[in-house]
């Protein structure tokens, strides 16, 4: 019996890798000779780099770069098993978790370190990039990244513009003469399911600014600042960044990647599955087990479980989902293509207990339904 395990993480509780191990233990209790393929997944957010590296037999490289507030941080980028493709999670160098809650300040936070990660990979000879946009501390529309790659931004009287999205309100012009010429040889795919545009009530500042520490007044200022940045870009490039779908991802990083690095915005799970050659790996499987923290309406719009189902349907492989909570009725589970879905939570409990016990409960629930499968096969 060949079983493929392909989950997302349960945010704040169990990683996709830990999920794979727990499910594997449950399977082997019932089918000790089962052939198990562990393929941890992600949708462009937390865990994308690590899971893609593990699923392809790649490696990770650590370098020192500038963090969101300018301090040195140790950040990693992934080299996939094809030895050609680099995966960069913006959160590694410019992430919210790198800043203590009381110090979070998107007015001055910069994406410079993400640009440094790209430059390190260019220096090592790589030209294919997957950029995961999620968990950023910044709201600078990728200006810091562009600076790290050689662009110069100027305020009044030709004074270099300070770091941070709040200072973009003072931008007079920029000079991209020294933008790294190797970027023209490189290709960039953005792995993100964020569809927000750059500015306005559904833009980067309004939707994501508050979770990064922005007050209502700062949100208003930041929105005006990146709108002004867009005006300058339109004036110099003839390109309007504001309507780009997904341009508001990661504090506007999406818009900068599309405009200056000719990046393509794609569904995060599609990029991940393509990059790890998921379709090839599941051929011949008897069962696929997937999972994520919650099975809800968001699952239907491009999350990991939906992505896995889309591929398994082609090969008529039955698929079972394990989740912390299930908010979809069976009609929608049928629409997804799931054989079944189970909550791992066996009893009423606190959120803290659910998070602590998740690995044990995943293992137990897996053993439970694998016993049903065994009895059915033997009947």
Automatic annotation (TrEMBL):
SUPFAM superfamilies: Glycerate kinase I. It comes from the Bacteria. Pfam families: Gly_kinase. The keyword Phosphoprotein does not apply. Keywords: Kinase, Transferase. The keyword Ligase does not apply. Its EC number is 2.7.1.31. Belongs to the glycerate kinase type-1 family. NCBIfam families: glycerate kinase (TIGR00045). This is Glycerate kinase. It comes from Aquibacillus albus.
